[in-house]
Amino acid sequence: MKQDLFRKKSISAMIKESGDSGGGLKRTLSATNLVTLGIGAIVGTGIFVVTGQAAAQYAGPALTISFLISAFGCVLAGLCYAEFSAMIPVSGSVYSYSYATIGELLAWFIGWDLILEYLFAVSSVAVGWSGYMCNLLSGWGLELPPHLIQSTFEHMAGEGWVFTGSIINFPAVFIIAIVSSLLLAGVKQSTLINTIIVVVKVTVILLFIGFGLSYIDTSNYHPYIPENTGSFGDFGWSGILRATAVVFYAYLGFDALSTAAQETKNPQRDMPKGILISLLICAVLYIAVTTVLTGMVNYTELDVDAPIALAIDRAGKGLHWLSPFIKLGAIAGISSVILVMTFGLSRIYYAIGHDGLLPRMFSKVNLKTGVPQNATLFAGIGCGLVAGLFPLHVLVEMVSIGTLMAFAIVCLSVIVLRKTQPDLKRPFRVPWVPIIPLLGAGICIMQMVSLPWSTWMRLIIWTVVGLAIYFLYGRKRSRLNEK
What we know:
The chain is mostly helical. The protein has helices at 2-5, 11-18, 31-42, 45-59, 63-87, 94-101, 104-139, 170-185, 187-212, 236-247, 253-258, 267-296, 307-314, 323-354, 373-389, 392-420, 435-449, 453-477, 479-482; strands spanning 153-156, 160-163. Helix 4 runs antiparallel to helix 10 (236-247).
């Protein structure tokens, strides 16, 4: 039985299975498409929502340090992702890499973790989209009923879960339904829409940085590192560390890129470019926006769903003209994140279903559009329910811990595969192995440790459910078991 749990898929067999037609998926994406997909996925809620909450709750103006640490960790993990995505150009991301390096049980574990990561990523971004949309509509004199714009449940410190009285966060559910419909139309159409949105939102962000510089009040930077309250994670250096773990979520997008390897024209050459270029561009934008935002508004006032909109409104008449553009840019930008993340989640379902660890209905591809139809529908329905029922801060923490675990496993898997299969063709190689992978894994684990215990408890419960599914269903129906 132990051998069954750690059986591995052959890398050559995985690539052969993808075949010239991508195992049913069509190879249509170029390097430029990958970079815009990466920016589309990364730049969104991280800038437009999480920056304000992380500054107000954990780090203050020193959130820029948190973004720098996260960016460094992401570059290290990104190098490891680049090696794997060029070497194993199939859908499934870390799940597929783990299946080839550390065996089926751990591959299932990380695949189940990826489902957690993407499910809560899409849901949290949709909640952020809802906040900006309601803010925009309010500015136009349109107010949605309170019981249709809030989560059904809230988690209160010391009280646990409480019912808010709201029916559902309808705008969050609505945008997921729209995005899922676009994805069902085909990859080419989705990519074109994403590219247009990326141009719009990057332009808006540059406008905010450029014009916002004139409205910075340097007194808002004092104290740059607010004094710790006596609890770990509440400001001070421990707050910077906790904020680092939370804003790590903001860099999630390049992970989604690796799920598109099986739909890339030249993955060996273009996947590393797409991952690293999009990551570096977004890191610079994040740090610049955080600097301007915490300079325009005192960090104590930024614990809102739409912090950049708040900063523009506080600037007064001088920037009043920019307010609708910022809000529209935020809405468009967050929409592209939802699109790319839902794309990634559907490909995770596709890959796991193809291997038999989940029902094989998920691996069914529409011959006309080249889209895994059932996987995309299931992803949209699941994300819509979670987004409508649960609050933003709980969703963000769950995404962070899932992301950090995935990144740590990728970093360590590079070392394992270098030892066990040193002669494999590697179009892109991580330099200074094992130093860079170990450093990347160490930064990720350090940030995981800083997250609240309640987040770890939810991860443990999710893991137990996942292991039950594997032993009761997946292990017997695995394609490797059939062989």
